[in-house]
Amino acid sequence: MTYEVVIGLEIHAQLKTDTKIFCGCSTRFGAAPNSQTCPVCLGMPGVLPVVNKKAVEYAIKAGLSMNCDILMDNRFARKNYFYPDLPMGYQITQFDLPIAQKGYLDITLGNGSKKRIGITRIHMENDAGKSNHDPHRPISLVDLNRAGTPLIEIVSEPDMRSAEEAGAFMRQIHALVRYVGVCDGNMEEGSLRCDANVSLRRPGASQFGTRTEMKNLNSFRNIERAIVSEINRQADILDDGGAIVQETRLWNADEGKSVSMRSKEDAHDYRYFPDPDLLPIIIDEVWLARIKDSIPELPEAKKERYSSELGLSAEDAAVLTSSIELARYFERCLAMINKPKLVANWVMVSLLALINAQNISIDDAPVSPESLAELLALVDTDVISGTMAKTVFEDMAKSGKSPKLIVEEKGLAQVSDTSEIEAIVDRILNENPSEVDAFKGGKTKLMGFFVGQIMRATQGKANPAVVNQLLADKLK
Amino acid sequence: MKISAKEVQNVAELARLELDEALTAKLADQIGSILNYVDTLKKVDTTGVPPTNHALSLSNAFREDVVVPSPGTDKALANAPLKENGCFVVPKIVG
């Protein structure tokens, strides 16, 4: 049978603050267990939480970048449940008055079509600690360094209809939080995590089917794989006349399948109530305007501008704006040599190949945008050919030398002097009389042969345009 | 408004409290009278009165994002009944 797939995502993004949301403990990753804790984040009796202003600003920034309404008067609530990684016995989160709501993002799918995905709400909350389960003994070891780390939870509308759409939405969120600088987007370290709600229904049905929640999706690939696997699992059950059980499932990436997680007892009775320890947050227009001004050009707007102002294709614009680092590199290079297509090609082909081969980030690229611009200026002014530039680029990556120095040291400068090249053209034509006759007899394909011979004789340094012109004149 | 013994038991379970039958009945009675009082309050005409977000008429108590040194692992674990490798030891949570 065919089913319509309905997917909603809940995304937790760790805010890139130096300290926790309600106390001054550091949020640095990888510190010794429990070394970054204090009475507040340990949930000791009698302590009072105080809100980190930057966390609030980051949450507003994220909300604005996702086209949300900001709730000018919002507050924290307690979500009550018992779990060893939650020292207070409740999570401080937002319930009826979240900081942002009613937003959307436009995603672009593989076939180029666009789709708008609604964002229900974004709320602030504190993270829990981390438990390590002993493989041999019936104990768990709890490290509360992460407890109290500021998070935003982004809740989407159930607007996605395939694993591809869910993957595209998550990529968009990932790019956005990094563009506005509120989250480092490191999925392996858990700075950005995703739970997926998946259900199936018969096409045209007005009600949603029973959904399951998939947890532990820590890469784009796993999000898509886990959703495909869950769609198939649910379809099989429904095809056999069975019913879906509402449950939380844990994705196992190694085995490529999910298992039912033992559900938390009474997990759905959290007894939310406003947290009396925390005062309401009231945002005024001045504060909001200041945060708005701090938001850089966002990927969608950038993509649009790259196409309309710089004349790049939609595909190229999409690649260049896929991450803030790549866009920044491109723009810094472009600032020094205003040749958008030339710069775009070099950044997308040579730079990305280099980054991928060395498995490093763009910010660590051994060739700076300024050096690349210098190299492209040499191409643009015919000092070296495009082909030669590739060799120079490789040398730059290895030696860190400037392109000018490499061209000078290796004598790679292109020869554009007509008289110098003419002598070589004449020599090659003299050495190959039968090919010349054949060419004149109509075998015009031999042009490539002559160009090749001349390039070899000049070690690739002859200006190809001059060579072609001379050959055309002499072979008339 | 009344609250049943079953509802009191449910709330007690969520709070990990063990109540015997007598105490359950007593609490149901007491909570019931509190809820009745709330019902009385509900009868007040609040047209035009903005909702109260907090008992204090204050807002925006913030701190700057500046690290304050933490007391450290030893102090954090000082009252823990069981500890190991700088961690709190608890009964196994999963599986």
> Greatest interface and its residue counts?
A-B, 54 and 39 residues
Shape of chain A: elongated
- What is the CATH topology classification name of the domain at 5-42 in chain B? Histone, subunit A
Tally the helices of chain B: 3
Note the beta-strand portion of chain A. Answer: 15-25%
Neighbour order of strands in the largest sheet of chain B? 2-3
* Total E-strand runs of chain A: 17
Structural class of chain A: alpha+beta
Task: Return the CATH architecture of the domain at 5-42 in chain B.
Answer: Orthogonal Bundle
Gyration radius from CA atoms of chain B, angstroms: 23 Å
Terminus-to-terminus distance of chain B: 42 Å
Termini separation of chain A comes to 70 Å
* Low-pLDDT residue intervals, each spanning 5 or more residues of chain A: none
Share in β-strands of chain B: 5-15%
How many domain units of chain A?
3
Q: Assembly state here?
A: heterodimer
Give a structural overview.
Chain A is α+β, with helices and mostly antiparallel strands and 476 residues long. Chain A folds into three domains: 4-287, no CATH class; 297-410, no CATH class; 418-474, Arc Repressor Mutant, subunit A. Chain A contains 15 helices and 17 strands. In chain A, helix 7 crosses helix 9 (369-380) and helix 14 (446-457) crosses helix 15 (464-474). Chain B is mainly alpha-helical and 95 residues long. Chain B has helices spanning 5-14, 21-42, 73-77; strands at 62-63, 83-84, 87-91. The mean pLDDT of chain B is 92. At the A-B interface, strand 2, helix 1, strand 9, strand 10 and strand 17 of A face helix 1, strand 1, helix 3 and strand 3 of B.
